[in-house]
Amino acid sequence: MEKKIALIPGDGIGPDIVREGTRVLDAVAAKFNHKFSYENVDAGGVAIDKYGEPLPEKSLKTCLASDAVLLGAVGGPKWDNVPGNLRPEKALLGLRGGMKVFANLRPAVMFKQLSAACPLKDEIVGAGLDILIVRELTGGIYFGERGRNAENTEAWDTERYTKPEIQRILKIGFESAMKRKNKLCVVDKANILESSRLWREVAQEMAPAYPSVDLSFMYVDNAAMQLVRNPGQFDVIATSNMFGDILSDEASQITGSIGMLASASLGDGTGPGLYEPIHGSAPDIAGKDLANPLATILSCAMLLRYDFGLEEEARCIEKAVDKVLDEGWRTRDIAGSDFEKLEAAGKIVGTKKMGDLVIKAIND
Ligand code: NAD
Questions:
Q1: Atom of ligand 1 nearest to the CA of 276
Q2: Residue nearest ligand 1's atom 5 by CA
């Protein structure tokens, strides 16, 4: 298979981790006989410095003309005082809008090897944690009508969803559940919000087309509580933009390892998806060979699975990561309280070495 991938290294540790992601993709391409070509794209702070704007039109065009987009991270203290509309993070909104990616898929996985980093008690996480949060990304209150009255004493934001918007995100929710444990929980606030009641109606209308999926509903306040009380009950959670924003951060924190979590933002399948680690640009460790590249490497696995339909290749990456962790290799951020012991044993590695280890495991 021949595919073109747009790379957005971005700022901070972005270039370090995207480099490891592409090395891993190359290893997979060599092993499975594919050809991936890459085009570098400027976005974020680096684009502000070069072109005076966070997402030049040319950058978006290159992304749209590719088969998939891999993003490192954008932002950093250097650009903290630029005007709001020119902030590096504007590149993310521009990419999501321009690429029409309306579904954000965030797996919250607790790696058994890293269970010590999970802030929840053993009896709560039990056998582990493996939740997929499907968040609506381009609608709802973040994009709804907003304003203030003339006296500046009142402000409003509007939660608004159309039936087609709900259908397309729930379709991804149902289909994702079918590829996992066949459980879909739609999280809403249907006891109060009319828009949530429409989400429920649409989910119920769609359910007969997915007979193997066990559909349930939960109010968002309860879901926030259940995630820390009994996270093992969830398989796929589908929810609106704002609820998803909050719950996906909560779910990722309870895994205890931000440097491990990948994400995919998908559209209707006619254009490329956007793949990125969930963490930021970590300016404190940029360029020091300290960044954990695994979230980016696992984002590459999602890219192969969702954009190219290469399931075996995606699993090959995931298994390689698992093997490297099983062998006890750690970057600093995931060493936890074992750091000194691991360092003495020579098991603490930097960004590049971690990439090397994953590539070796792919080839083993
Ligand atoms: P951050 O995720 O960059 O860093 C939080 C902490 O986690 C830091 O101590 C950092 O060193 C550590 N960390 C993060 N990723 C790591 C990795 N891969 N390996 C090892 N350690 C890692 O969050 P922040 O400090 O709040 O934000 C820094 C900058 O990133 C800000 O400018 C912010 O706006 C931006 N940001 C960008 C994105 C994105 O591009 N998607 C997301 C979040 C934040």
A1: 41
A2: 282
Distance CA 117, CA 239 (A): 27
Binding-site residues sit at 76-89, 96, 106, 135, 221, 245, 249, 280-292
The mean predicted confidence, pLDDT, of the chain is 95
Q: Is the pLDDT of residue 30 over 70?
A: yes
Whether 259 lines ligand 1, by a CB cut-off of 6 Å, is yes
Catalytic residues: 142, 189, 221, 245, 249
Confidence of residue 84 (pLDDT cuts 50, 70, 90): confident
* Residue 278 pLDDT grade (very low, low, confident, very high; cuts 50, 70, 90): very high
Pocket test for ligand 1, best of 80, 281, 297 (most atoms within 8 A of CB): 281
Q: Please give the Cα distance from 180 to 131 (Å, whole number).
A: 10
Q: Which residues contact 303 (CB under 8 A, 6 or more apart)?
A: 5, 25, 68, 70, 264, 273, 275
Report the separation in Å between the CA atom of 142 and the middle of ligand 1, taken as the mean of its atom positions.
22
Q: Is the pLDDT of residue 79 over 90?
A: yes
Q: Is the CB of 240 under 6 A from ligand 1?
A: no
Closest CA to 174 of 201, 140, 213, 208: 213
Rounded to the nearest 5 percent, the helix, strand and coil shares of the chain are: 50, 20, 30
CA distances from 103 to 166, 260, 313, 321, 324 (A): 11, 20, 23, 26, 30
Distance CA 234, CA 244 (A): 14
Separation of CA 258 and ligand 1 centre (Å): 9
What distance in angstroms lies between residue 70's CA and the mean position of ligand 1's atoms?
17
d(CA 329, CA 297): 15
- Interval 267-277: pLDDT, tens: 999 999 999 99
Instruction: Write down the pTM of the prediction.
Output: 0.92
Q: Give the E-state strand segments of the chain in sequence order.
A: 2-10, 35-40, 68-73, 103-110, 129-136, 146-148, 155-157, 183-188, 214-219, 236-239, 262-266, 274-277
